[in-house]
Design goal:
alpha/beta; eight-stranded mixed β-sheet; five-stranded parallel β-sheet; 11 helices
Length: 405
Amino acid sequence: MLECVIVGGGIHGTYCCQRLLEETDLERDDLLIVDPHDRLLESFRQKARACEMDELRSTFVHHVGTEPFGLENFAEGRDRTDELRPTPGYPRRPTLSLFLDYAEYVIDRADLETLHRQTTVESIRRSADGTDSLVLETSDSRIRTRTCVLAIGHGGRYRTPPWAAGIDSVTHVWDGFDPETPADETVVVGGGITAAQLATCLAEREREPVTLCARRDLETATTEADPRWINWNHISRHLHRHPPGSRERYETVREARNDATVPRTLLERLETAVDDGSLSIRYGDVRSAREVDGRVRLLLEDGGCLSAERGVLATGFAPVFEHPFVDRVAGALDLERGHRGMPVLDDETLAWSKTDGSESSVFVTGALATGSVGPLAGNIAGARRGADRLTTEIAKRERLPLSAD
C-alpha cells in the first residue's frame, strides 16, 4: 500500500510531490503521481501552445521548484536573465520557454517522472477491509493508498456557449485547436488574457485577418487577484471568517478575482496590432452562429455580423466543482459539499470533510481548493499555499494505524 497518491501531474501535483519528498519522511516508494498524459506538466504545455503564450502572468518566484529564487538563479546561470520580463510596478515575469526549461530541470533533478504513472483515475472508494485506506480505480489497475491529494485542475472541461453547439468550424482554444494551421480569416471570441494573447499572436504573424470579438471593452489587471491573497493571514481574515463551503466564501472569491482581464503589457501589443491593421476588435454578445459555404457566420445581439473561416472560443473553464469526477468521489466517500458543490475543507490541512464532520483521507489543492485557499488557489502561487497546509498533515498521518469502523 502506498502512503500518498497525487491525482494530477500538472503544476500543483508536481510541486506537491516535491514538498512531500523534501519535508516529510515519505520515501519515493511511498508516493505516486497519476496523470493520463505522457509526461508531467503536459496539459499545461498543450494549453500554452494552443493560445501561443510567450510569457507568464505570474512573477519569477512562482514556479514548480521549491526554492523561491530557483528560477532566477537558473536564468542567471545560463545567461538568460533577458527572459525575465520587466513589468511596471510589479516583479519580473519569466518567458514561457524559461519557465518550462526550469520546470524540466526541476523534474529531472528530482527524478519525478519515475513517480509518474500514466493512467486515468476513474473513481475513488474506501477499501473493503473497513479501514480508512482508499482504493483508486484507474483505467488499467487499482491502487491502494493511505491518503490521496486531488490536484486535478479543471479536467479538460471548458465553457462553450450554447450558440457554438454543432458548429464544426468553431472550436475551443484548448480542445484541439492548432494555431499553426493557417486560415483565410479567424475570429477569436472572448475578452480575457487567453483571447487577447491568441488574437495578438495570430495577428502579429500577418498571415491572416484576425478579429477579436469581446462582449465589452477590455479591462486591464496585472494579476488574477490582488497579490495580498497570496498571504495566508490575509486569506484567514477575509475568507475564513465565513463558514466553510458557504455562499459568502464563494462570493468573496468571485469578487476578488480579476477574471476576463488583460495585463497592460499585452493590451499594448494588442493595440499595436490594431493600429497596424492586422487585427480588428468587435464588441458585443454573439446571439447565434451558422455555417455558410465553409465559413462561420456569427450574428451579434446588436444586429451586426462577423464571418470567418474559423472561430476560436477563448471562453474559459467549466466550474471544477461541477466536474463529474468530483461528483463521483464525493458521493462514494460521503464528502461534504457546500454552495454550488464547493468542497468543505479543513482550512488548516485542506483535508476534505466527511458529511459527519470528520476528516477524510482526501486532500485538495488547486482550483478545487478555492474555498479555503482563496482566489489564487488555482494559480502557481496557490500551489505553494496549498502544499504549505496539506504537507504537514500528511506527514502526521504517515504510518499511523488505520482506523476501522
